[in-house]
Fold these 3 entries.
Entry 1:
Amino acid sequence: MTTAPACRHLLGHGRPGVADEPGDPRQGRAERERDPPHSQRPGRPGLRKPARSAHLFTKESSTMTLAPYRLVWLALWVEASPAENAAFTEHFRAALAPHGEVVVHARGPFHRTPELLHFEIDLTPRESASACLQALGFDRVAHVWERPADGRAFLHPAVHGALAGETEAATAPRFETGDVVRVRNSSDARELGLVDAEVIVGLPDYDADTKPQQRTWRYSVHVEGQDETEDLAEGDLEPTGRHVQLYGERISITRDGVVDGAEALRGL
């Protein structure tokens, strides 16, 4: 099965796997794979990328029933050596533990800026995801979460930059980016001519205007032979147990003409 080179459906929410440059937000972690964002240190430009959820919680709505599935994600870039990976992993885990359950992923030197270590953090907050981000010092500006550029360090003085976002829904997404699924018989599937077809899950999404505890998942899906993705509800898809590397595999060619990084593409 081949993957579509272009996406019509751009992600607004969710938490898929690492992406290279699929054109998103989640789609996956494409924004984390780009250059680190501007940190709290002056004179070091960078990029600011959108958080996944566009739902703006008001003070009144923060008192509503908590969504069963809540996630705050953080991407951090730290000025440190690879030998300090374990120490920073433990530091971030301890620093964030008061806010909820923490899982820290140490990704090692950032591929575009090797002098920076890259960390990705999944935080299941005890409160709403937006309240947790506010407690961490982030502010909602339009559709993105940002930290004030006031020169204060975030979690540790060595943190050069940080991205943050949140997801809240009735359940965790059943499928991950790259899962091969079979399309069930539904009105949408019949309209698209995809009943019983095998497609590849791209990016999860939900209606941000729906109350968090009532949100259900939809996915962009890559269809063999199409340049554009389609959009289907989670209930329209059933797993096959297979998975492919949809985004994130980089290919480089050495001076001798040897291709590196193509192993994952052989299964597509």
Entry 2:
Amino acid sequence: MLALFFVENNLPWLDELPNQSDFLAWFQRHKRPAPADSTVRLLRRAWSVMRAQSAIHNECPWPSLDLRKPRLQLEAADVIGTFAANPLKRLLDTLLHDGAHVAAVQVPDMIVSHEAGLIAALAAAVPPAIQALTESGRTDLRPAVYQLKLSDLGQLAVSPALALARPTGRLRFERRATMPNVKRATQTTPDQGNALALPDASLILDQEQT
């Protein structure tokens, strides 16, 4: 990705490296699948190696960039949105899927206008979201769901990291068979060989790439 950025911007020398903001703008226009912060970390790591070998002497002009926390908050928002009622669902849809400028304008206004309803909807959506995550094995997202606050959504809406930290796919729930049910199906239908009718017994969480 870095090589493509250098080629497309005709950058033969490191001392001509544009500002990080220029790279992030290019990154958003091209909708690259890799996280922007990991690309910045790669450049900074390579720069550090070159400095250690005296191939270059100045500091890396790109500052560190860490999108892990806002990305985790947005994934939590996506999970909660599956179980949210309006007006929270509408707010989350705006935050996750509309343009960053739209979210920056509409989300703070919705929070001010519907604060009580949003707080109640968030409190109601968290327990089923936690249960679904537990049943699907995605326990890594439970802390982020527990900790997500209405104020976090407002901060994300006006953050320049919003467009960069949004999940690249949609989190969705599907019914699948658990291993005990597979075992029971195997024991009760030995004559069917590999053609097992698996019951819809549990929820798992899939990452659907777009």
Entry 3:
Amino acid sequence: MKSKIRSVLSVLVCIILVFVIIGTTGAIMADKLYTAQYFRDQIDKTNTYQNAYNAMIKEFSDNYSVSNIPVEVYEKSFTKEWMRNAIDEKINSTFEEREADIDCSAVEKNITEYFEDYAHEAHVMKDETYDKKLAESIMYAEKTAMNVADVYSLDVMKRAGITAKVSSYVELARKYMYPCIGLAIILLIILMILRRPVYWGGTALFASGVLMTVPTAVVLMNDMIQRFSLKNYMTYNLVTGVLETVTKNAMITGIVMLLIGLVMIIISIVYNHNKTKARI
């Protein structure tokens, strides 16, 4: 009778442990992945710094008929280094919950010089219309560059309240990460008291690994991430790259847990088999 009760309790603790392991793994992943450093690393891996710069110059070039400002003026104002710093500042300011501090003084200076040179050559009078057109041109340049630099659309998500919600969920995950780890340890101690902790602990790890590996493997094998439809190539490349990395990390973690759990189960079965044999 005692053996049956012990087995039932072991199964119940094992089931709870599965959810605790998955929850703890999710909390750890959220803690490691939702950081400014991780966001910047993904941009580097997907060559987004260069793609963003190219996209910005292309937009300025395509809109020459509207702005009437040669692309060279913009190239002189917004360098590749400027784009890298602007992207990083957009990310850093979001995570630090402050306004982005991006220097756009070069474009103001260069466009003003271009206007003055043009006015001098074409004998254009510097009146109210001239000042208005100059201000509009500077504003257009700054807005275009800033929009391109916001590669994760953080400003849009901020206005929609998405950033605040995600941050609160991640903070909650971080808050309960260590209690989850503590609960997992307590459950393992309970399994030790109920006996066969290696077997049941391995079973919990194996089940957790399966629950993480199967769905992520299905997503990757069916190229579900690549089916996202985004008009902007730069954003598409970045978003799919990030999602693929996260999915692969989850799958690898699941496989490791699955294998460790399987080894623990085999060790426990072999040990108990040899123990029973020795008694006979």
